[in-house]
Amino acid sequence: MEIAFIKMHGAGNDFVVLDGRAIPLDLTVDRIRHLADRRLGIGCDQLISLEPAGPGADVFMRIHNPDGSESGTCGNATRCVASLVGRERGTQSLTIRTIAGDLPSTLLADGRVTVDLGAARLDWAEVPLAHAMDTLHLPLEGDPAACSMGNPHATFFVDSLDGLDITTRGPRFQADALFPHGANIGFAQILAPGRIRLRVFERGAGLTLACGSGACATLVNAARRGLTGRQARLILDGGELDILWRDDGHVLMTGPVATSFRGTIDLGAVASRVSRAA
Question: Most buried among 16, 125, 214, 223, using CB within 10 Å?
Fold first, then answer.
């Protein structure tokens, strides 16, 4: 089964997009792992499959992590898919459906895309956490804050990101019993009231160049602690994202989109290689 794919990225957070709207894709966990592998497959932070959405949305976006698990939402991937489907349909406004909810998106004249990621979820059960507690101050070393943007995030505010061993600290906190479903672990440095430097160790993907939902969670947590206002520019390893936490609770993210290349891949051949390796 030879199918077309598009390699895209948003601020360096890269994706392989497969279109399953006309023909369902047989994406097993092994196939997802192989396709996401940067040596054996195409390589990506997440594999994105497009599916029919039904009434009220333009497309359903399913987000597969490199380990084969599924993510609830991904802000950078949403911008990429919105740009792709919006240009395909000749519209600037559209709705991307995910397992975490519908995400209204707008294509801007400068090529960037704005996505409404919905209301930040701040109750301990919504994150979720293991038991009732104040999500503004978690009982962990480093005093992180937590919220959900359709997936769980914990933000550690640090004096400096220089020399911080995120690849060690990220997995350790991610696996803490406080997070029954794991969490995306962000490390943020406040540069100015409207500028935040951020690095995120993502659940199921590891350290990436950018995390859109993590940028949203960081701005929300920073504003809750009085470190910033409700709007800021987030500086990530792969680029910059503008985040606005509106008074109605919704969080809007604006950022760039790029297409790296297009190609085709034989899913049957992938299945054969996976079977031989097993």
Answer: 214
Reduce the secondary structure of 65-112 to three states and give it as a string: CCCCCEECCCHHHHHHHHHHHHHHHCCCEEEEEECCEEEEEEECCCCC
* Same domain flag for 229 and 267: no
Residue 271 sits in a domain whose CATH number is 3.10.310.10
Tell whether 261 and 244 lie within a shared domain: no
Asked if 184 contacts 211 with a C-beta cutoff of 8 angstroms, the reply is yes
Condensed to tens digits (0 to 9), the pLDDT of residues 115-145 reads 999 999 999 999 999 999 999 999 999 999 9
Q: What's the one-letter identity of residue 133?
A: M
Q: Are residues 71 and 11 in the same domain?
A: yes
Give the sign of the dihedral formed by CA 205, CA 207, CA 211, CA 215.
positive
Which is nearest to 200 in space by CA: 235, 243, 150? 235
- pLDDT, one tens digit per residue, over 13-62 is 999 999 999 988 989 999 999 999 999 899 999 999 999 999 999 999 99
Runs of H (alpha helix) within 90-211: 166-174
Which residues are tagged catalytic?
74, 211
Name the helix (H) or strand (E) containing 32: helix 29-36
Q: Which residues pair with 161 in a beta bridge?
A: none
> Are 195 and 208 part of one and the same domain?
yes
Total number of domains constituting the chain = 2
The answer to whether residues 168 and 248 belong to one domain is: yes
pLDDT of 261 strictly over 60 = yes
pTM of the model: 0.92
Report phi then psi at 111, rounded to 5: 95, -15
Indicate whether 41 and 7 sit together in one domain. yes
Give residue 219's domain range.
119-255
Per-residue model confidence as pLDDT tens digits over 211-255: 999 999 999 999 999 999 999 999 999 999 999 999 999 999 999
